[in-house]
Design a protein that fits this description.
2 copies of one chain form a homodimer. Chain A has 13 helices and 12 strands. Chain A is of the alpha/beta class and 350 residues long. Chain A folds into 2 domains: 175 residues, Rossmann fold (3-Layer(aba) Sandwich); 160 residues, Isopropylmalate Dehydrogenase, CATH 3.40.718.10. In chain A, the strands form 2 sheets. Chain A has a 7-stranded mixed beta sheet with strand order 3-2-1-4-12-11-5, sandwiched between helices. A 5-stranded mixed beta sheet of chain A has the order 6-7-10-8-9, with helices on both faces. In chain A, a hairpin with a 4-residue loop joins strand 11 and strand 12. In chain A, helix 5 packs parallel to helix 6 and helix 7 crosses helix 13. At the A-B interface, helix 9, helix 10 and helix 11 of A face helix 9, helix 10 and helix 11 of B. Chains A, B: Keywords: Cytoplasm, Lipid biosynthesis, Lipid metabolism, Phospholipid biosynthesis, Phospholipid metabolism, Transferase. Chains A, B: This is Phosphate acyltransferase. Chains A, B: Pathway: Lipid metabolism; phospholipid metabolism.
């Protein structure tokens, strides 16, 4: 039985969509128990509203609630202050219980940076890890799912951090995406090994020498959606720049196309008739809600960051992703990987 | 009379499109003379082919040719080697003549990195400048034209380099884009002044203190196409990542939309009837060929890098852009700006 801690109060549409998503997940899978962290009164009302037939009633047995009045707002800035004045915030309690082995993992749609920092503080890391990585998975028009890391947890990284991230992500890609020998590439401004800053030059060397990962060279960011790589490595600043640029470009071009397809009465009708369904299908292919949440890698517990704007469906996906990772025993497999590789080819780059 | 040096052999479609573009520019404007650097025989044939009526015949008087057998291929890697074995390559000769005041500026569609490096070697910089910046201008759906720099000349920069770039770009935005008080923003992963690496934190401080520029804070890259800024500042690595991500996202989404609009016989006919013209108009809005070339800023000469894939039309635009910058006397105005600001608020960040 997998036990997951759910931060019921984190997310733009919490607790409503979080509770709905949790019920959805429990109805779709067996061997799962959840603990909801948040305001018991509100959660109870939402559970009653959404569990209204006999089929769903079994689900209530699989749900526990741990009450707390406090939670982090989505625009939280000063985490240290929050730790002082809201030490019992729903996210913090969930993480603490994970570290105390009361649950196997945590799912939260709360504020990303706060979650990353709180993980740092509350959950043990692998001995080999000096940093933890924020690792979204994303899908593309080619129906391939890829992992990007670090997407924002660390703005300054060393080559050895990126090597340890590569190892964690390799295990995840094997177990979550069912890829035998995951291909890793380094995000860079050119494909040649001589391209990039000293970070990229040194990381390229280090990754090339490590035989337990499948490093396949540099990848330029115009190929983010088409790369043969299963895992794209980068420092948090660069990956964040790339992700945000991507988001902006897609949004702006989509808006421009939408205007073309809806500008005028007849045009609107024709678009609806001929293109509506096709466009919905295409949008679905790159919809981040379709692939679950971002993982926080390097920790000795599974922590999934669902999108802040998670719908019930998206949050349900994040829960199922967490369950899959726990059932596949990725924490044990990652630690085994590190232990079996005590002498990883780490070059001292200092 | 403005005299421009044209690298006739640089570009994916050189010399054909370069010669055509030059003729186009000469037919559209007066007070312009050009010197074509390249293979005289080939250029002569192309000139004859394209100047075949009396109206165009006047144009020949405004064209000189400086013969050389050598030029840089578009995939040139080792510039130092090229300098040794092809010291008379068309691009090098054009730049040397600019530095010797034989011409007022240079237009080349040759390989970008080689052009930047060759500018470094052959053309004097402003005393204040320690680096030069690669500065494309780009347009957007909102019909606003913006300058991005540094887009790849320097992968490592200091805050004071970015300040000097901000000053050069301010003069360009005033004179080329006719903007009274150009707004400058710093590309960053967050809008707050506390966001980013030490480069962004220190640059933010430095730019805030300089009263002769209109610094308006950080800009996140999802707003690349919608920012109120006229000038976006960044280091060459980051800007290159953003530009390439943008290019990839637009290409991939455009392909996906194209598939939707052309998949099937009737769909194709309907798309052609209702949407073809609108889509062409939208594409034109973000077509880099519409805005001229990238400028290489910090030099005491105007150097324009036209797109490698320049059509005649795009190359003509780059020539007219160069002419406008020369006629507006931006080199003098920039040097005056630096001289009038001998005590720029440069903080020693070392």
């Amino acid at each position: 039985m997998t036990r997951l801690a759910i931060d019921a109060m984190g997310g733009d549409f919490a607790p409503n969509e979080i509770i709905k998503g949790t019920i959805m997940a429990l109805s779709k899978t067996s061997n799962l128990e959840v603990i909801l962290y948040g305001n018991r009164n509100i959660i109870d009302v939402l559970l009653k509203e959404n569990i209204n037939n006999n089929f769903f009633k079994n689900i209530t047995k699989k749900i526990k609630i741990i009450h707390t009045d406090n939670f982090l707002s989505m625009d939280v800035q000063n985490l240290r202050e929050q730790l002082r004045i809201k030490s019992d915030a729903s996210m913090f309690l969930a993480l603490k219980d994970a570290n105390d082995n009361k649950v196997d993992g945590v799912i939260s749609a709360g504020p990303s940076q706060a979650l990353v920092l709180a993980c740092h503080l509350f959950i043990k890391k692998f001995d080999f890890m000096k940093r933890i990585a924020f690792s979204p998975i994303y899908n593309s028009f080619d129906n391939k799912t890829r992992i990007l890391l670090d997407a924002g947890a660390n703005i300054d990284l060393k080559p050895e951090n990126l090597l340890s991230f590569a190892i964690c992500a390799t295990v995840i890609a094997k177990e979550l995406l069912d890829i035998k020998n995951p291909e890793i590439k380094l995000l860079n401004i050119g494909s040649e090994s001589s391209k990039g800053r000293s970070l990229e030059l040194e990381t390229y060397k280090l990754l090339s020498q490590e035989k337990k990962i499948n490093f396949c060279g540099n990848e330029e960011p115009q190929n983010l959606l088409t790369t043969t790589a299963d895992i794209l490595l980068s420092d948090g600043f660069t990956a964040n720049i790339a992700l945000k640029t991507y988001k902006g470009a897609i949004n702006n071009l989509s808006k421009a196309f939408k205007k073309i397809l809806t500008d005028g009465f007849w045009v609107k009708i024709i678009s609806k008739l001929f293109f509506h369904k096709r466009i919905q299908n295409m949008k679905k292919k790159i919809d981040p809600n379709e692939v679950g949440g971002a993982m926080i890698l390097g920790l000795k517990k599974i922590v999934i960051k669902a999108h802040g704007s998670s719908s019930a469906y998206a949050f349900c996906k994040a829960i199922l992703q967490g369950k899959k990772l726990i059932e596949a025993d990725v924490i044990y497999k990652t630690s085994k990987y590190f232990n079996d590789n005590n002498k990883l080819n780490v070059i001292d780059t200092n």
